[in-house]
Amino acid sequence: MSKIARRGLIARAGLAVPFLAAPLLARAQGGAPGFPNGPIRLIVPFAPGGSTDLVARLIATPLAERLGVAVTIDNRAGAGATVGSIAAMQANPDGQTLLMSNIASQAIAPFLYPGLRYDVMRDFTHIAMVTTNPSVFVANKDCGIRTMADLARIHRASAEGLDMASSGVGSSNHMLIVMLGQLLGKTVNHIPFRGAGPAMTAVIAGQVPMMSDSLPSSAAYLRQGVVNAIGMASPERHPLFPDVPTLREQGFDLASTSWFGLSGPAGMHAAVVERLNREVGVILSNPDVQLRFRELGGTAQAMQASEFQEFVRREMEKWGPVVRASGARVE
To answer: Whole-prediction pTM value?
Structure first.
């Protein structure tokens, strides 16, 4: 793909414009008595059809049933999941607005966007872990790439290098593409989209030969055979796709596991946090819910709120050096 064509594709993909977050709003601690007192808005910081959106919709229905109120999905994509995250951060901390937080918004974005003005640990209440899942490289069926050896050969032979899509700047799959380029010794051209769904559409159509994706949003397409699985970014082969080798099996020391949780604005009442964490734990203990997550390639994983808070802190410590070493920044 020419540089001019690639620029046009990036523009159509909807690369977000860098921004400075709005000033923090002063908030009082909110909402223990009477929670919930109306519909709950669950902000998903990616477009419909991607892994974050799928996880949110899986958890929203049983959560609504247990709380006795509607839980509506509000997709707010853009800027590596930070647009939706800022909307959640600025909401009233009464528990009526929640965020489907993830590795992109909470562990990668703070190091990728120098103008980002939210503090992951100060400006959010991290309520409950929901699920984890590996990343996978998938390719258009007619692009000539079926193995990592094919990918490396085509990438090195091309003067401009290989193009690879992801759900957006700052996603864990973006970082996986960066690390792949480091291993190959030649940058892989990252083509960011506003969500995994639009990126997959482009791969199927042949606009981009490959993408790095979280398994839940690729699983259905892999089962249908409309794209090829090139390698799983997990320590071991995934039980859903036992014929797909890991990247490490193919000589590429790469691994990436995404995670998705429930967070809210800072200042949420401890009783609201405890209630939401308890309800999520009950939902995740349901065998039918566990099966649904497994079918998507994920693993339901409950944690106490304090454990999830510490988990997010450790993820920042893990991914900060990766982002810095990659040199990736969005000005």
So the answer is: 0.75
